Every structure is written in structure tokens, then in C-alpha cells.
């Protein structure tokens, strides 16, 4: 039997579990980006030097290498290229190239939601500042300004007054790949912002790992999650509504099989909104912790899907307690010395520790998910215990800077 080849776009730590799952299945792994020193390349079988946002260059490399599957797992910039290559080569992917382009462009996604009767904030996309400044009366202030093509809350600003719009647009454009940005009404949430790692099989939404997002109000970017907690305490009626709307979205887009990262919220107006839906795993190791927290290995399922292997026994997660990802970060710049974790807390609640920065490395403030220093996986018996820990996390976990 000829060994299957899987191309993974990117080289970050998020790919390591997929490389491990692929190797368990006897799959040959090729990692691809333009940064040969990235950590994932040390664990793959082959490295391909190519820009993952250049879809035609990725296609050319994939055809030359004779791949059987492609993923941009938890790597947002490569999703469109992965969908493009999969469609051109007849490989498995969550959706068509056109559907991926809609989902990956915040402006196009908002328009698609609006055209198809989904709850959607008042929103408009732009490619130049002047057009946006002419539309200040179109919006119900405050507004959110963000790039149409970035993830991890990079380039996102809440703007309360029109006079501050130019600076917010400049920041959004500084984090954009394609030079486009979107402005939309700020939706005041009720309870937590919620996300989900959701898995679809043959067009049917079968798995939803809903989690609640926590934010550090002292961070430079207060819209970047500082923790995620499972299972979500969103009211069941809203979870059911979100699942129903996701299924409707996936049917309209002709989705097939694979993993999606979803962000949603219930607002003070009583409506539930789909905020982001991307055909990839979420960052911050979301799919990884679900393998601790619940009874379905979605990383294995996504790996199997990528090369056309069957997926069995996909179902809603049954949780084994209450779990959290704590995103280690600094509120100021400095030189990294280490992370101090209180010993009893570590013994009782920390199930995995991951540090991405070496001692002596430069540390920046928490401007986005890419500024994370690492993660802690936490477990408690109940939600009240988890909430009390997160409310005073600095008592247990300290970032030491010089």
C-alpha cells in the first residue's frame, strides 16, 4: 500500500498534535511555510518552503509533491489556500473554495448572513479610509473596526466616537493581508462570548464543544481571550439555536466533512449571533484540550478526514469535569525569566504546561493571540471552583520578567 502524504500549512506548535496523529496512522507529513526554523518542521517528515497565502504557489508545490490531503489546522492565513488546493486536486476539505472565501472574509461573511436571514450586526466592508469616514452615520455607535482577513483578535478596536475612527482603521490595515477592513455595530453581549470546535460529517453537524471566553480587562487588547472554559454555561435554548443556525449555514454552503472553529454570542437584545465560522481548528490549542475534556478525539478525526479515511462514532462531547485553557501572557514588555506556579495549585489543577518562550527572550504586551507566552490546561470538579480560580489567577500563576 502506498503511503499517504499530508501537507500541513504553517509551522506553529498547533500542528504538533496533527503530526502525531498522522504518524500513528502511518501518514507521511509535509509542513509548509516560508519560515524553516518553525518548530513543526522539526517533527514533520519533510519541509516545503512556500508562502501559505500564495495559493498558486502552494498548489504548484502540492502537485509536485503528490499529496493526498491538505490542512491549515489552527493556522488562519492558510485556510483559503488549503481549500483552493483541495478543490483543484480533488482532495477532501470541509467546503468548496468559494465557501472558504466567504467564511474567511469578514465582510463577505456578514453579507452572506444578511442575505440569508441570519441575525447579523449592521456592518460594511471597505478598502479605503475616505469611504469609511463618509459612512459614520450608517452605524449605531459604538462600533468595532477590524481587518476582514485576520484571526486571534489582531487589529481589532472598539471605537466610541467618529473622531477616533482613522486610528482604528490604520491599526486594522496594519494587521490585514489584503488591505480590506470592516466596520460593524458593537453588539453588547449577555453573559459570555462563546466559541465552539464543531465537527461536521457528510454535511451533518454532529459535535459542538461549546466554551466560554474570558478576557483580561488590563490587557493592551481586551478582545483577545485570556482563557477558555468547558463546558459552556450558555443557556441550552441558545446552544440549540446556535446549532440549528450552524446547520442551516453549513447546508447553504454545501459543507461536507471536517472541523470548524465558531465564535458566537447572545446579546442584550435577546438574539443569538454567529460571529465567526472558519473551516479550521481554533488557535490556543482548543481541539487539544477537548481530547482531555471529552470522549471524542477530534484531532484524529480531522487527520483521518484530510486523507479520505473514514470517521466513526462522532457525537456530542461527554465531559469529564470542568476544563480551561489559561493563555499565559504579559501586560507589559520585558525579558522573560520564567513562570512561577503555586505548588499546591499545580498539583491539584494543572494537567499540562506549555511554555513557548525561552529564558532571556523578549516579551511583548498582550496585543493578540500571537503574543501568548504559552498555555496551561486546568481541570476542576465544578464550574464555581474554576471561576474562583480564574478570578484571582495572579495568586497562583506569575509571569516573571527582568
Q: Give the fraction of residues assigned to helices.
A: 25-40%
What characteristic shape results from the CA principal axes? Answer: globular
Number of helices: 12
Roughly how many Å apart are the termini? 55 Å
> Which class of secondary structure composition applies to the elements?
alpha+beta
Mean pLDDT: 95
Taking all Cα atoms into account, the compactness measure Rg is 21 Å
Q: How many strands appear in the DSSP assignment?
A: 19
The quaternary organization reads as single chain
- What percent strand? 25-35%
How would you describe the overall organization of this protein?
The protein is α+β, with helices and mostly antiparallel strands and 402 residues long. It is built from twelve helices and 19 strands. An eight-stranded antiparallel β-sheet has the order 13-12-9-10-11-14-18-16. Strands 3-2-1-4 form a four-stranded parallel β-sheet. Strand 1, helix 1 (16-24) and strand 2 (28-33) form a beta-alpha-beta unit.
Amino acid at each position: 500500500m502506498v503511503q499517504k502524504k499530508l501537507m500541513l500549512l504553517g509551522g506553529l506548535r498547533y500542528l504538533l498534535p496533527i503530526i502525531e496523529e498522522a504518524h500513528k496512522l502511518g501518514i507521511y507529513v509535509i509542513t509548509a511555510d516560508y519560515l524553516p526554523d518553525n518548530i513543526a518542521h522539526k517533527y514533520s517528515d519533510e519541509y516545503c518552503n512556500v508562502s501559505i497565502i500564495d495559493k498558486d504557489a502552494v498548489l504548484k508545490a502540492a502537485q509536485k509533491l503528490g499529496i493526498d490531503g491538505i490542512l491549515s489546522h489552527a493556522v488562519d492565513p492558510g485556510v483559503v489556500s488549503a481549500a483552493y488546493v483541495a478543490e483543484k486536486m480533488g482532495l477532501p476539505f470541509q467546503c468548496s473554495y468559494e465557501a472558504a472565501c466567504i467564511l474567511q472574509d469578514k465582510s463577505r461573511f456578514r453579507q452572506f448572513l444578511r442575505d440569508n436571514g441570519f441575525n447579523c450586526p449592521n456592518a460594511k466592508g471597505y478598502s479605503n479610509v475616505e469611504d469609511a469616514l463618509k459612512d459614520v452615520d450608517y452605524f449605531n455607535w459604538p462600533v468595532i473596526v477590524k481587518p476582514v482577513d485576520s484571526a486571534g483578535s489582531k487589529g481589532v478596536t472598539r471605537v466610541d466616537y467618529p473622531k477616533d475612527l482613522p486610528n482604528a482603521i490604520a491599526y486594522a490595515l496594519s494587521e490585514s493581508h489584503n488591505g480590506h477592513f470592516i466596520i460593524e455595530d458593537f453588539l453588547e453581549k449577555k453573559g459570555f462570548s462563546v466559541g465552539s470546535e464543531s465537527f461536521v460529517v457528510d454535511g451533518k453537524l454532529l459535535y459542538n464543544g461549546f466554551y466560554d471566553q474570558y478576557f483580561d480587562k488590563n490587557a493592551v487588547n481586551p478582545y483577545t481571550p485570556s482563557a477558555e472554559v468547558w463546558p459552556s454555561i450558555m443557556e441550552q435554548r441558545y446552544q440549540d439555536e446556535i446549532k440549528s443556525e450552524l446547520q442551516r449555514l453549513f447546508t447553504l454552503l454545501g459543507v461536507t466533512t471536517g472541523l470548524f472553529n465558531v465564535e458566537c454570542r447572545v446579546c442584550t437584545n435577546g438574539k443569538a449571533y454567529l460571529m465567526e465560522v472558519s473551516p479550521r481548528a481554533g488557535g490556543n490549542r482548543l481541539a487539544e484540550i477537548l481530547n482531555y475534556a471529552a470522549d471524542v478525539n477530534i484531532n484524529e478525526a480531522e487527520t483521518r478526514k484530510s486523507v479520505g479515511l473514514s470517521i466513526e462514532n462522532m457525537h456530542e462531547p461527554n465531559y469529564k469535569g470542568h476544563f480551561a485553557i489559561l493563555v499565559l501572557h504579559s501586560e507589559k514588555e520585558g525579558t522573560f525569566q520564567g513562570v512561577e506556579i503555586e505548588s499546591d495549585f499545580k498539583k491539584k489543577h494543572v494537567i499540562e504546561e506549555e511554555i513557548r518562550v525561552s529564558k532571556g527572550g523578549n516579551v511583548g504586551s498582550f496585543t493578540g493571540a500571537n503574543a501568548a507566552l504559552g498555555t496551561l490546561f486546568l481541570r476542576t470538579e465544578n464550574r464555581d471552583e474554576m471561576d474562583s480560580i480564574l478570578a484571582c489567577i495572579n495568586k497562583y500563576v506569575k509571569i516573571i520578567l527582568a
